[in-house]
Design brief:
- It contains 19 helices and 14 strands.
- The protein is of the alpha/beta class.
- Helix 7 (about 280-290) packs across helix 8 (about 310-325), helix 7 (about 280-290) runs antiparallel to helix 14 and helix 11 crosses helix 14.
């Protein structure tokens, strides 16, 4: 049974729209929108900044990136939003659902796009994909945050996030995340890490519940056209990264046949017996990749060198791993070669490793793995594995920083005013102990290891129904969720099981289109988002016109963007 809390309804017209909160493409790409009172931003100001930060975190909106010129669009889309907290049976924490219904909703075609946020982002985390594709066509869009998001709870003052994005104290209003019995000095609580639900195991149910909420809100928006059902409304599910994994999970759990097509970009997906779970290869990379980056294969690779020089951290990691008995070579270059060989032996490909230098340099492996380990083990904010914790920092302007968390947070600290602490020592490689502890949870060391393995097993995807169109788009050089561990084994499994998915492996594309604002990345890589739009177009033409689904080989001639502006010839998109 679906359980939804109070539904908040807002209208967005006359300088405030659904797709860009009135900012337009130039405003989305520009400076952060200010708050009139940084200590008490309004719900409208928080929404505007949340939309802007999620656009900028996903898409390359720069003048050379081609968005709005070569692909995509950001027109003014007036309409209404319906948002609520939704609960799954047996879950402790809610997930946030939101439906955007444009004034120009096409009642004749009746299409609902259902989207899950990427990463652990908040409710607008899929707007650059699902909203940008669907809203200008007159389609409604339903979103879920997958029980993640940035509705942080701060035990120090007992505040969390209300439905409108503003902060309030416990008891004053329903909160997005309201953990119980936390002492004031516990540290920050984040929903994905600390809900006690292992939300990843429910990703599919989150998406399907958002779809049902979307249909119900269409009933409310257009009572004369009701009922809106899966039988008389076309439902297309889409998502990117974790959102891509979520819609594939939904496809496998859609026993009622609600979904009409699924388009997944660079999905974080786990197939039992095929590929590798994210936590396995991410904890491995968190330990070994820093050491491997000292190898000459990474000379000239962005983030692997500072100018032409190696960061000292790479050699220090090799020496530290030898001291811990994880490597045997006794020279820096020997340690680098040994670490690189171990990664290659476990399935990592060189293109993915080179791009993953950015993930390593930015310390993203540790950041993400801490949150996942806590979620898998169902730990609270005061009991995170391996001694980790999130601590609110007493920085200048702390109250203003706290007020913007919902709009700016990624769902996985650290972030403004929040530090990731613990799991360190006083050595020259201080973060290694925590990384080793996280890795050992997967390798079977310690009492918690079987529980973590069981939790990861619970995230495995199920087969979609035979006739469901499934399109998977993945960058060939993805270094965060390599296609070799996720999309490729998933597609292989589907085909071995009698399904006929479409798989586009895009040359030169990597995981983060937003990174193309770095010149070194734009010189080497192509954006993935245009291919997501093209795949959605082909799925829609298949459903609405009966056109055949495209072939895998449609993506052949894509090139890196290079130093100049993106062009259609550079993309070489599949024919419409």
């Amino acid at each position: 049974m679906d359980t939804f809390g109070e539904v908040r309804v807002t209208t967005h017209r006359n300088g405030d729209d659904l797709l860009s909160a009135g900012l337009g493409l130039r405003g989305l790409a520009g400076l952060t929108t200010p708050f009139a009172n940084p200590l008490a931003p309004t719900a409208a100001e928080l929404r505007r900044r949340a939309i802007q930060s999620n656009w900028k975190g996903i898409a390359d909106l720069g003048p050379l990136g081609g968005f709005g010129r070569v692909y995509g669009e950001v027109p003014d889309v007036p309409g209404c939003e319906f948002t609520a907290f939704a609960s799954l049976p047996g879950a402790r924490a809610s997930h946030r659902v939101l439906v955007q219904v444009p004034d120009a909703f096409d009642k004749a075609r009746r299409v609902l796009v259902v989207a899950a946020s990427s990463g652990t982002r908040g409710i607008y985390g899929a707007i650059a994909l699902a909203g940008s594709w669907g809203l200008p066509k007159g389609f409604a869009v339903a979103y879920t945050d997958k029980a993640a998001g940035s509705g942080y709870f701060d035990p120090a003052d007992g505040t969390g996030v209300m439905l409108d994005g503003t902060r309030a104290k416990v008891g004053d209003a329903p909160l997005e995340f309201e953990p119980k019995n936390l002492s004031a000095d516990t540290g920050l609580a984040a929903k994905h890490a600390h809900s006690g639900d292992n939300p990843e195991a429910d990703w599919g149910r989150h998406v399907l519940q958002a779809a049902r909420f979307g249909l119900a809100m269409l009933d409310r928006a257009f009572p004369d056209e009701a009922p809106f059902t899966a039988d008389n409304t076309t439902l297309i599910a889409t998502g990117l990264s974790n959102g891509g994994g979520a819609v594939l999970r939904a496809a496998g759990e859609d026993v009622d046949g609600m979904l009409d097509a699924v388009v997944a970009l660079e999905p974080n997906i786990h197939v039992e017996g095929y590929g590798r779970p994210f936590y396995d290869y991410a904890t491995e990379a968190g330990i070994l990749l820093a050491a491997a980056l000292a190898a000459p294969e990474f000379d000239g690779v962005p983030f692997a060198r500072i100018g032409m020089a190696q960061p000292p951290a790479w050699a220090l990691r090799g020496a530290a791993l030898r001291a811990h008995g994880r490597l045997t070579a006794n020279t820096p270059q020997g340690q680098a070669r040994e670490a690189l060989a171990a990664l290659r032996d476990s399935g990592w490909q060189d293109d993915a490793l080179k791009v993953a230098a950015s993930t390593t340099s930015l310390d993203l492996w540790r950041t993400v793995n801490v949150s996942y380990a806590s979620a898998y083990l169902r730990r609270g904010a005061g009991d995170m594995p391996c001694g980790f914790a999130y601590r609110v920092q007493p920085v200048g302007g702390a109250a203003a920083v706290r007020s913007a968390w919902w709009a700016e947070g990624s769902g996985v600290p650290p972030g403004p005013g929040i530090a990731l602490v613990g799991g360190t020592d006083l050595s020259l490689d201080p973060t290694l102990p925590g990384l080793l502890c996280l890795r050992d949870l997967w390798l079977g060391q310690g009492a918690d290891a079987p529980r973590l393995r069981e939790a990861v097993h619970a995230t495995a995807v199920a087969l979609p129904r035979v006739e469901l169109p499934v399109l998977v788009v993945h960058g060939a050089q993805d270094g965060m969720i390599p296609a070799a561990f996720s999309s490729e084994p998933y597609v292989k499994w589907l085909r071995a099981s009698g399904r006929r998915p479409v798989f586009w492996k895009v040359p030169y594309a990597q995981h983060f289109d937003a990174f193309l604002s770095f010149q070194d990345f734009s010189d080497r890589h192509a954006p993935l988002l245009p291919f997501g739009f093209a795949a959605l177009d082909r799925a829609w033409s298949h459903l609405s016109e009966g056109r055949a689904l495209p072939e895998d080989a449609a993506v052949r001639d894509t090139r890196p963007r290079g130093p100049g502006p993106l062009t259609p010839d550079t993309l070489a998109l599949p024919l419409p």
